[in-house]
Amino acid sequence: MNDRPRSTLSPDPSFALAARYRVVRSATEQLAAPLSPEDCAIQSMPDASPVKWHLGHTSWFFETFILTPHLKDYALYEPAFRVIFNSYYNAVGAKHPRPQRGLLSRPPLDVVRAYRAHVDEAMARLLADPGRTGELSPLIDLGLNHEQQHQELILTDLKHMLSCNPLQPAYLPNVEMPAGQERPLEWVEFEEALVEIGHDGKGFAFDNEKPRHREFVAAHALASRPVSNGEYMRFIADDGYRRPELWLSEGWDWLNANGIRAPLYWDGSNGKQCRFTLHGVLPVVPDAPVCHVSLFEADAYARWVGARLPTGAEWESAAAGVPIEGHFAEDRVYEPCPRTNCASFDQLFGDVWEWTQSAYAPYPGFRPAAGAIGEYNGKFMCNQYVLRGGSCATPRTHIRASYRNFFPAAARWQFSGFRLARDL
Amino acid sequence: MNDRPRSTLSPDPSFALAARYRVVRSATEQLAAPLSPEDCAIQSMPDASPVKWHLGHTSWFFETFILTPHLKDYALYEPAFRVIFNSYYNAVGAKHPRPQRGLLSRPPLDVVRAYRAHVDEAMARLLADPGRTGELSPLIDLGLNHEQQHQELILTDLKHMLSCNPLQPAYLPNVEMPAGQERPLEWVEFEEALVEIGHDGKGFAFDNEKPRHREFVAAHALASRPVSNGEYMRFIADDGYRRPELWLSEGWDWLNANGIRAPLYWDGSNGKQCRFTLHGVLPVVPDAPVCHVSLFEADAYARWVGARLPTGAEWESAAAGVPIEGHFAEDRVYEPCPRTNCASFDQLFGDVWEWTQSAYAPYPGFRPAAGAIGEYNGKFMCNQYVLRGGSCATPRTHIRASYRNFFPAAARWQFSGFRLARDL
Amino acid sequence: MNDRPRSTLSPDPSFALAARYRVVRSATEQLAAPLSPEDCAIQSMPDASPVKWHLGHTSWFFETFILTPHLKDYALYEPAFRVIFNSYYNAVGAKHPRPQRGLLSRPPLDVVRAYRAHVDEAMARLLADPGRTGELSPLIDLGLNHEQQHQELILTDLKHMLSCNPLQPAYLPNVEMPAGQERPLEWVEFEEALVEIGHDGKGFAFDNEKPRHREFVAAHALASRPVSNGEYMRFIADDGYRRPELWLSEGWDWLNANGIRAPLYWDGSNGKQCRFTLHGVLPVVPDAPVCHVSLFEADAYARWVGARLPTGAEWESAAAGVPIEGHFAEDRVYEPCPRTNCASFDQLFGDVWEWTQSAYAPYPGFRPAAGAIGEYNGKFMCNQYVLRGGSCATPRTHIRASYRNFFPAAARWQFSGFRLARDL
Amino acid sequence: MNDRPRSTLSPDPSFALAARYRVVRSATEQLAAPLSPEDCAIQSMPDASPVKWHLGHTSWFFETFILTPHLKDYALYEPAFRVIFNSYYNAVGAKHPRPQRGLLSRPPLDVVRAYRAHVDEAMARLLADPGRTGELSPLIDLGLNHEQQHQELILTDLKHMLSCNPLQPAYLPNVEMPAGQERPLEWVEFEEALVEIGHDGKGFAFDNEKPRHREFVAAHALASRPVSNGEYMRFIADDGYRRPELWLSEGWDWLNANGIRAPLYWDGSNGKQCRFTLHGVLPVVPDAPVCHVSLFEADAYARWVGARLPTGAEWESAAAGVPIEGHFAEDRVYEPCPRTNCASFDQLFGDVWEWTQSAYAPYPGFRPAAGAIGEYNGKFMCNQYVLRGGSCATPRTHIRASYRNFFPAAARWQFSGFRLARDL
Fold first, then answer.
1. What are the structural domains of chain B?
2. What residues pair up with A407 in beta bridges, in sequence order?
3. How far apart are CA D265 and CA D160, in angstroms?
4. What residues of chain C lie within 8 A of the CB of D164, using their CB?
């Protein structure tokens, strides 16, 4: 039986959808449960949003795209939320400016929770009507996958905010980190081929995974696992951050302008290499995948070892047959870990998002959805790079081989690592 | 009996000091009482601080300058607070960067309140020892006046933060605003004189009010009251904000760079001239003093009517004999109001701070206090301008004729207005 | 006989190389001939360089990479030029900061010309030695192609600088612009194919055109010619610059932050749509290709008509068989013009560089050259987009189908236009 | 006998005015004579202007305020210059933006010189008419004093521009620097007094020196000479730039943001303390006045020795009786020098402008001139500080005791030093 809820074989699809709705929505609330109102209100940088805003925005998504147009007599919880919780949908109307999301002490956390309950109650009414559910199912699925994306952002944005605090507070203290064994890096070879990539049409996918199409891939090899902290520490020790010949020009400027000398959250000031995590300040584990690096750092490391980053097509065609197993958000250990049970080609899913060298661009034949929902992905296809495979903060039910995450080359606050590739 | 605590005639000065300590400290807590943890955590601009930070910093002041050096066996509540709640005292050590005060979700509000209680309990012990109180009395007085300054900043910083919220929330809704009568502006004349200004040594004063010294003041006239909203609206209607000949060069650049067309918090977008206040959005009252204007705006208005701003010496020598009466923070109406009971030379104290043309500079013979306390005032004597008289957010017991407040010329989030002067 | 020098059939290759050297170098000097010392010294933005710097830097290239390592007894003209005229080669040593190239009143223009003569004299000695020329021929070819790139930059940087002058001075006034006929836009169809792109090894190419490799291209159509000014004016008239749904998110932010409402250099302030050119202010010609647009504008226009930009592989495989004819720098009319003699699939070369949707990235198997020369192209392969085909400011002998130019998405001061594509 | 050249006793004042006009105007041209067109075109920072712009602007001043309104049939040399060479007179109309003055390669230097000749020829006609000269004399005097101010700015702006060049070019090489003797610093005492300051009405003065008025000055002492390089080097050696307790808060931030560790133009990188001058790179002379320091540095030094900066009233009342002798621009040694012939209270005029602690503010009763000329001084009376006494780059005929120069506290590219004061 398939353990991925999105391709359920249940005879009553609307029942499954309603159940999935409850599961996903309550997972979001569980994430916020240990947090104070203040923890949920603060925004530490323009790229990140307060937890409270994530809680509201995900509800706004259902209200705006499903309840308002499709549920008769639906009453907006609060008209002002239409603006406050709009992220970037120009077609929906005005937006509260992104860098000012952290200025909103009101609505208080309790009201945002009440807003969630109001939306959930209305969604429950809608989901109880089998006639509607079939037709709206793709849109509701989009809303749930959207919510899962914000679950991961809640964790990464919260981590950044807590890291700015000299008290270095832990979100979930006293978590036991799994120990893993050391694994040598091996190379898995792939012959040249005209591969098919993109979503195959089974189950949910975002529009940016479509259409499925052919790409020619030359002979190459992929590393058996992501680059580890231990390996990365050797790059640092070899003056990797001080040798311009290893860096993209824009990366070298970025590094010098920001005084970058290690991955984000690393702190070696007390003699031992430590890192800030959602579970407190912990020593860097050599066998775990390196994390919180930019594309620039990933690319420089690859050049240092005479390798390169994989393309999206290389990654996806290699991952297509691999089971989606690994260390995910459901484990509630929000830090990449060494593998405890190793395959010869492994850790593609979970632990860390893997940077690829592929610019985020439309697939041949790409068509965004009609209306405001079409703004979801397509308008960001510029100056961003694709990451693959999900992380320790990604829900297991959210990821797949064709999934394309994307961030600018300098972004580091996501759980981003990388795997090496080379030409044959 | 004299209602101003600073010149008490009580036979037991230490008793009065202990009582005053309790009164001032609890006034701060009353200000925060209607606020949620989120309201107290957010910082809306680098110049403003979160309410929670003000609550902590004022306690840090007593802990750092009084308890740690002077109370035997005093235990720091939390060593990390030494850094977090240091404002700008380099001699005390490291400081958490001012623009990042709003990133501190921890310590939570409850812990900061516990910190206050810890400090208050220790201060009570210290104040119970008459032998110590005499010697420490000036330092404790400084701490209490410092706390009163932060009471005003709590209100102005909170007002700015709430104003950034599209919901336009009120801090204290449903307050009844006193109505006042219209008063024509009259000119009060003063002959040339060698005046004495600066603090006369009775009661508490900050170091920047000292020493008392002589200044020569030419013949001049002062307006009988501050400029009103009604008068200022005529300046706007006469294109005051669009005529470069009325403005200081730096003011003209500031105005254009920031699109300034009215006092801060004014909003005429719904056809009627309204303003955001701590009591909600209210119509602009023509007879109340204009408020939340920069020195640039005050100066341009004065040029428009062929007048000028007073100097600090003109203001202080005129105010020296005037009773300290007016509309202060104790009234809990945090908005300047029309006068209900008019003198011929009036409203010098309370309602609005009055910009002067005097740059904030040391008085002849000025000596800052020794040690870290010497950083309190002196190091800011550059590129700031002096304001006089206190506002509706200033405690009545905090102000006096010699008091010198100071802000940069572009600052508008304080309750700042102005009074006209002219040469004779 | 072949008029493209790079594939000469001359029996004495070194003679041809020496001749080519003289032709290319003197072409650079001819560009600067009409300019005053002041015209050559000023830098109008960090992206652009003064003409004088281009004159020096191209000489520095020969001095640094050919004369110093390979000509015995070569004496540096001036050691300080090693720093001043280094563009971005970290391996060569220190660089004068790019944004400060316009601060160098010294060396004066005459000295830079003497520097060129010094380098040319030494190069003539080297080129007279047939034993060396064969071995160094690839490096000298690189130097000459590098010089041609800077010839184009001299024109684009000069144009930007002159455009900043309210006098709107012309570089070459009184040029007769060729008139052309109107041509309807037609679609040329291409079937899906596994195409080969990249340089085929005949004659000179930059490393970023290699290696030749296969890409799979789906069925598509390309427009028969670039988008014209007339068509683009209809986009503007249809509120193209005010409709967010047409724009990439980053483009929409860029447009609003910079108040963009038309291509660079367009000026409609006098009632008629004019443009600043190197030949003075001239009316916009409807039948000429639109020029000086960013990738953002090209992409928005394409979305407006329901089309898209071509990929690099689509463009190159279509252009591979097309003769390199068109309107180039040798014509000394530095403005794109209507075509006078139309083919059914035309204007691929010359007039305007054509934006593609392809991010500038390494080809599979890409290897930069060893040493400092390896910094030439590879380190810029991030956050830039590929343009194809050359422009009216490109030397005819410099362009080829496999040529990849690259600029950031917001760049507009190059002669950049675009051609439409669509899926079949 | 009158020692001030500007108030000649010639029986024909108009003749004297015409002669003075020629002398002052030609002095400006002599300054530019050694410079190339490129030297005259480049702008190194927004605060500084190109020499060519100064040459044009000073001519524009006569054209705009004297020739156009007062010379019948005067024909503008070029209408576009009305905008290009307007500095900051809003009442005159549009201005070319100050930071873009360095983008104007056209008009070329020769045309600007022809513009000067055109204006001079017209002024000669005007000055030949005795009937007009008397009436216009104050305005012409203003134009000449304005021109002298720009003579000094030509030198300081040129110095900054040349200093940005890694070639470190000299404006006037091979100048012999006068040697001087060491002089101990002595204190000159002044009793408290009601002094009169401001211009006394004899000869020319700017409006900001008026009206003459009384100020009360407490007993104080002034140093016998400015602080020397040798003394300042001891401040540096005592970690003066690293001790926050010595600095104004804004100065401490400025110092850290800009990495300030010595006066502008100092360079100790080759083991010896040198400085860039208009005569080449020279060793720092211990007995010469320290120069190119900000108000922040002057103030910090004074605090380090337990002194302070003088007020403007202290400086002016002390200088009122002192002959205007010293080292001025006419000596063509553009660097402060040790005194060769010492008085007990000395070097008030020439060598270095002396920072005072006085904010630049209107004198009591100040009235700017009517019309555009009123923008000359008054609108800058905010956030600037007064300097006194002129420098080695000031014409001897331009300075007087009542003269008030003004710059922001962080400005260092003027020839600015300081003298100590202390309370008695």
1. 12-163 (1.20.120), 187-423 (3.90.1580.10)
2. A385
3. 9
4. 100, 103
Using the Cα atoms of residue B246, residue B247, residue B253 and residue B254 in order, give the sign of their dihedral. negative
Burial pattern A341-367, b for ≥16 Cβ within 10 A else e, equals: eeeebbbbbbbbbbbbbbbbbbbbbbe
Give chain B's length: 424
Q: By a Cβ cutoff of 8 Å, what residues of chain C touch chain D?
A: 36-42, 44, 52, 80, 83-84, 96, 100, 102-109, 161-162, 164-167, 169
Task: Check CB contact under 8 Å for B167 and A84.
Answer: yes
D94-97: list long-range contacts, CB under 8 Å, 24+ apart.
D96/C166
Predicted local distance difference test score (pLDDT) of residue C344 = 78
What pLDDT band is residue B154 in, cutting at 50, 70 and 90?
Answer: very high
What is the nearest CA distance from B165 to chain D, expressed in angstroms? Answer: 31
Give residue-wise pLDDT tens across range B237-294.
999 999 999 999 999 999 999 999 999 999 988 889 999 999 999 999 999 999 999 9
Task: Tell how many helices (H) and how many strands (E) occur in chain B.
Answer: 11, 12
Half-sphere exposure at residue D337, Cβ-oriented, CA atoms within 13 angstroms: 21
B52 in Cβ contact with B169 (< 8 Å): no
Q: Name the residue facing D248 among B357, B374, B382 (closest C-beta).
A: B382
pLDDT-above-90 percentage for chain A: 84
Q: Which residues of A touch C (CB under 8 A)?
A: 88, 90-91, 194, 213-216, 218, 220, 244-245, 247-252, 295-296, 299, 308, 357-359, 361-362, 364-365, 374-375, 379-383, 409, 423
Contact (CB, 8 A) for B385 and B295:
yes
**pLDDT value of residue A2:** 34
CB atoms within 10 A of CB D312: 22
What CA–CA distances, in Å, run from B151 to B29, B30, B55, B83, D272?
Answer: 9, 10, 9, 21, 54
Q: Which amino acid is residue A317, in one-letter code?
A: S
The partner residue sitting opposite C42, judged by closest CB among D80, D84, D103, is: D103
Which strand (E) or helix (H) includes residue B359? Answer: strand B353-359
H-helix or E-strand containing B197? strand B193-197
* Confidence at B11, pLDDT banded by 50, 70, 90: low
Judge whether residue A10 has pLDDT over 50.
no
- % helix, strand, coil for chain B, step of 5: 40, 10, 45
ipTM: 0.95
Q: Which of C44, C48, C28, C36 is nearest to C109 (CA)?
A: C36
Q: From CA C279, how far away is CA C267, in angstroms rounded? A: 15
Q: What is the pLDDT of residue D340?
A: 72
DSSP state of B405: E
Average the pLDDT over C224-244 and give the result.
97
pLDDT score at C155? 98
pLDDT recorded at residue A8: 39
Q: Is the peptide bond before D107 cis (omega within 30 degrees of 0)?
A: yes
- Quote the Cα angle for C129-C131-C136, to 5°: 90
pLDDT over 70 for what percent of chain A? 96
CB count, 10 Å around CB of B78? Answer: 16
| B37 to A36: CB separation less than 8 angstroms, yes or no | yes
pLDDT band at D131 (very low <50, low <70, confident <90, very high): confident
